[in-house]
Amino acid sequence: MAVVPKGQAHVFWQAVHSGAVKAGKEFNITIEWNGPANEVEYSQQIEIVENFINRHVDGIMLAPSERKAMVGVIDKASKAGIPVVIFDSGADTENYASFVATDNYAGGVLAAKRMGELLHGKGQVAVIATIPGGASTLAREAGFEETLAKEFPEIKVVAKQFGMADYARSLQVTEDILTANPGLNGLFASNESSSVGAAQALKARSLVGKLPLVGFDASPALQEDLKNGVFDSLVVQNPYKMGYEGVKAMSEIFAGRKPARHIDSGVALVKKDDLSKPDVQALLNPPLVF
């Protein structure tokens, strides 16, 4: 079976790959891993999926880079009799067997509740968003913004910019937001690259410990910044489990069974004090074996 991530630059995707390989060994499925270098390369992701369809692999597990752009190839695979398991991020089609993902909206809710607690229900915040059209990160941002509006009406989102799943661009938009909003009280970054960029901006401006930052994802660099107080907290997914459960769902299909239509791979808020807990360490540092 083919496993096609949105990109390969981030540690998140390496953890997905490792989980998929583990399940592949367990269920006797050969994993072919291929994806674009970066998450904005929609046309390359389409090309990769097209190639797998033309080779008529037995199944395709896909993390759609963009919810509309990938509909054509998902539908084409289904029409060719190739089962599709969607993971990480949704697409605007029903032609898939199972969807394995974080409850991304719930992740945004966790971040908003933590921000409300930090700011005692009052202040100005900004969102370092990821990419327009990315279903998973848009859901996180919506969960954050809507929860603030509902539960903490005196906390206002005064700025929001997309870092385009790029470290340097995320740093730049954070710098722009900080310059334009000197009265800012908090920042929320909605994925690994936006979190890295926001952290770099705080360090460059000597704002560590002065401006609360809630991030998303948990690469080694982000964990180090959490330990050092750059982040107040990180909303953490379980990409290893996502990869494992996606391949497991495909194994059900290969065995003639119907997998669950939706599989929640889990989400948690991790603070500095949580880092020493064994269950948190297992979540943050899954074995990366390919």
Give a brief description.
The chain is an alpha/beta fold.
Plain-language structure description:
This protein has helices at residues 11-27, 42-54, 71-79, 104-118, 135-151, 167-180, 192-204, 220-227, 239-254, 278-284; strands spanning 2-4, 32-33, 60-62, 84-87, 98-101, 123-129, 155-162, 186-189, 213-216, 233-237, 262-264, 267-271. With 290 residues, it is of the alpha/beta class. It has 2 domains: 2-102 and 238-266, Rossmann fold (3-Layer(aba) Sandwich); 104-236, Rossmann fold, CATH 3.40.50. It starts with a strand and ends in a 6-residue tail after the last helix. The mean pLDDT is 96.
Going by helix content, strand content and strand pairing, the class is: alpha/beta
Average of per-residue pLDDT values:
96
Mind telling me the C-alpha Rg? 19 Å
Tell me how many strands there are.
12
- Examine the secondary-structure arrangement and name the CATH architecture of the largest domain: 3-Layer(aba) Sandwich
- Shape, principal axes of CA atoms: elongated
The fraction of residues assigned to DSSP E strands is 15-25%
Strand ordering within the main sheet: 2-1-3-4-5-11
Query: Please, how many helices?
Result: 10
Report the CATH topology name of the largest domain.
Answer: Rossmann fold
Helix residue percentage: 40-55%
The profile of the biggest β sheet is:
6 strands, parallel
CATH superfamily of the largest domain: Response regulator
Uncertain spans: none
Keywords:
Rossmann fold, 290 residues, 2 domains, six-stranded parallel sheet
